[in-house]
Amino acid sequence: MKEPDAIKLFVGQIPRHLEEKDLKPIFEQFGxxxxxxVIKDKYTGMHKGCAFLTYCAxxxxxxxxxxxxxxxxxxxxxxxxxxxxxxxxxxxxxxKLFVGMLSKQQADEDVxxxxxxxxxxxxxxxxxxxxxxSKGCAFVKFQSHAEAQAAIAAxxxxxxxxxxxxxxVVKFADTEKERGLRRMQQVASQLxxxxxxxxxxxxxxxxxxAVGEQxxxxxxxx
Length: 222
Known about the structure:
One of its GO terms (molecular function) is RNA binding. It comes from Callipepla squamata. The chain is α+β, with helices and mostly antiparallel strands. The chain folds into 2 domains: 7-88, RRM (RNA recognition motif) domain (Alpha-Beta Plaits, 2-Layer Sandwich); 96-177, RRM (RNA recognition motif) domain (Alpha-Beta Plaits), CATH 3.30.70.330. It is 34% helix and 25% strand. The chain contains 6 helices and 10 strands, in the order βαββαββββαββαβαα. It has helices at 20-28, 58-68, 108-115, 145-155, 176-191, 201-221; strands at residues 8-12, 33-40, 47-55, 73-74, 78-79, 81-84, 96-100, 121-128, 134-142, 169-172. The strands form 3 sheets. A 4-stranded antiparallel beta sheet has the order 2-3-1-6. The chain has a 4-stranded antiparallel beta sheet with strand order 8-9-7-10, with helices on one face. A two-stranded antiparallel ribbon has the order 4-5. The longest helix has 21 residues, at 201-221. Mean pLDDT is 77; it is low at 193-222.
């Protein structure tokens, strides 16, 4: 059972060949572990070289941090860096999931029940058309990145629901920045001037400015 004041640690500098089963014996010497999750890329599934670690007791987390922070070197020559979750990199704020290939008969509560075993859910919404019919997809938002990642690991591709054309899709939802970049990539692709993969915000701004200047020159020259 986790104590109310338990601390969640972010552990960096983990060799990418080590998984939860390899790390658990290292951390168990400081106390009973409530949760240990290796963090993986939301698109490729590749190991990011870091993890979240929560002990049942606050004292265990403090002991682990004191003993391991820049003290213990793992195979591969890297030194553990356990720090409080609040100091973890900003990309770990991702906790909203897109869920696709749902049965169109599933309501918000049905989807919530599917994801509840993996953590505390802040939001769960099935997407619907103007007539109220389900689009067969939903957004689910957890309280933490680790909970969201655990749901992806367990559910993505795990089953095919009634009425769905393929297996369940569970992935991190795009951020606003990613959606904006994709829209710009689509515009640039239609213009046929830049590769959508290589295009960045700055390049797109420079391109639109150049097009505008070219148009002004042509008008002045006529």
